[in-house]
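REQUEST FORM: STRUCTURE PREDICTION
Request ID: SP-0412
Submitted by: Lab K.M.
Chain count: 1
Length (residues): 417
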Amino acid sequence: MVVNIFPKIVLSLALGALVGIEREKRGKGELVEGIRTFILVSLLGTLSGYFSEILNTTLVIFISLFLVGMLTILGYLSKVRKKHFGLTTEMAFILTFAIGLVVFFDSYPYYLSVSLSILLTFILVSKGFLHRFAKHLTETEIWDAAIFGIVAFIILPLLPSSLPKTIDPLGVLNPFVIWFSIVIVLTVSFLSYIAMKVFGAKKGLPLAGLLGGLASSTGVTIDMVQKVKTNRKILYSAVFAVVLASSTMFLRMLAVSFIFNSDVALKLVLPLAILSVSGFVLSFTSWKKISNDKTSISIKSPLALGSTLKYGIFFVFIFFISGLIKSYFGTKALYIVALVAGLIDVDAITMSYSSLAATVLSPGVAALGILIAGLSNTFSKWFLSRWMGNESMGVEVGKYFSILILIGIFSLLIIGI
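STATUS: Completed
RESULT:
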């Protein structure tokens, strides 16, 4: 037993030290629990597991946990007397004991215990980021996130067992695939949206444009158009953001297609990469024209209930109409669907065509349709820049988007998907 417990003791000491060092540096001498205390409480957890196994009773673990709980309470009361409040260190103290206990019951290479300690340390280190994250969230966004949690973690797991694989005569509408698709695109959009709110404003327009493109390139376009209408001095900044976000959209399309069908994604790698890189290069050619007037990007939460329902209905419509047209008019008619639907949204086409490529479409046809949708959406944002904005905005955006569309058409002819 001594041979088996020794490496676990060493690991327990190391993991306790990892958390303890972070707390020691964060507390700057104000905390009751320092690095040595965290090391010892982790060791106590490991030894509690060891002796509980030798004595064949869990009473040892409960006694140790009671002792750790009492020490935690005493430490917190000591902090309160010094006018220091907050339970982060106390919670970390108890969790460190639990990690030490997990170390004993874990086995080489100790993935669980090491992962838990790294995760705990990461949460402790991320204090500033997490506070900024919470600060930038509005009450509406929190409500939207709660609804999304129900959609993603309650309804989605129930679908495979509660509903048949397909529910339509054509055999293309799979409730789980449809719901999963909506969850995927909303997850990518919301994470990018939050990252843009937290980092975008401080890190500058390029990062905001990139993150905005992952969240919603159309949203970025509309926001920039509206700002140019009130302040023409930021014209080139707005054009830069629109082109950058739209170029990022192609990478988003590639990532989404990989999630649903790697065969389709592999056919899209080269053309979408060419379009994305070309867009990045073109956007930065306008960098020197940007004025000193600072601007920021602000778009609506992609998790708004109304927008989510509309997107879900649109996605189901695209999925069904694609299957219907494929059955009655052949694959070439699907390109028209992609062209028209792409004017509104590219995610629905990307996910539906990638999914259909597993049953009724070839990967080549699906990839070509997705690429057409991407070019159509690029043209749509060009139109929005002129229609919702002004002539100058339309002309400047048109210079870059016309080149991108030509590159996309050339890619179709040369690559021959």
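NOTES: The chain is about 80% helix and 0% strand.
Reviewed by: T.R.
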